[in-house]
Design brief:
The protein is mostly helical. It has helices at about 10-15, 55-60, 65-80, 95-120, 125-135, 145-165, 170-190, 190-195; strands at about 35, 50-55. One of its GO terms (molecular function) is endonuclease activity.
Length: about 200
């Protein structure tokens, strides 16, 4: 039986897309979609613990590869010119295949550390709770109200919450009460039209 992908709610999209400062993990452009770290087609989980922010261009290039395979392929394409032999490069700065692999291996380990750091941010309980509480009411993306629109409208609120460490309900409650009191005062205050009529 073929597995089906699940639909993600807007709060889940916002949670993933704004991780890593809202940047694609691979090229640092603005993130636009969610990447399955372990590809869904290879049995990767279709849940937040397997999703990271990425741009559409990198998502197309990466395809159904995991980050390690993709990074190695990208790196070797850039550095290996196919000249020389297994043991030595043919021209200056053209490393042997072994040297290229060892260099790439170190970079892959560094990249995996970065992926793990962003993944930790995505699944942080306090952060998850804040996003769910703040945006669950938006439901699922639709033609009328999609993720880009929600992200644009919520950007400042998300930045403020991040600066405050994604406050809990108890931490947000005093600010909410102050806002309610301010609204109540505005409603109670006589308007200029009322004063001229009286």
């Amino acid at each position: 039986m073929k597995r089906r992908r699940r639909r993600f709610m807007i709060w889940e999209w916002l949670n993933v897309l704004t991780a890593n400062n809202g940047e694609c993990l691979y090229c640092f452009d603005q993130s636009q979609t969610m990447d399955h770290v372990i590809p869904f087609s290879d049995g990767g989980a279709d849940e937040l613990k397997n999703l990271l922010p990425i741009c559409r261009s990198c998502n197309r290039k990466k395809g159904k590869k995991n980050p390690v395979v993709w990074h190695v392929a990208q790196d070797l394409c850039l550095r290996w010119h196919g000249e020389g032999s297994l043991l030595d490069g043919a021209v200056l700065h053209n490393e042997s295949l072994r040297e290229l692999y060892l260099h790439t291996h170190t970079e892959v380990l560094e990249a995996l550390t970065e992926l793990e750091e962003v993944q930790t941010e995505v699944i942080d309980e306090r952060r998850l709770d804040w996003f769910k509480r703040s945006f669950e009411h938006l439901g699922y993306p639709s033609a009328n109200y999609g993720v880009p629109r929600a992200r644009a409208q919520s950007g400042e609120r998300i930045r403020e919450a991040k600066a405050k460490g994604y406050p809990t309900v108890d931490e947000e409650w005093p600010d909410f009460l102050k806002q309610l009191e301010a609204v109540a005062k505005l409603l109670e205050a006589p308007s200029a039209a009322d004063e001229t009529a009286g």
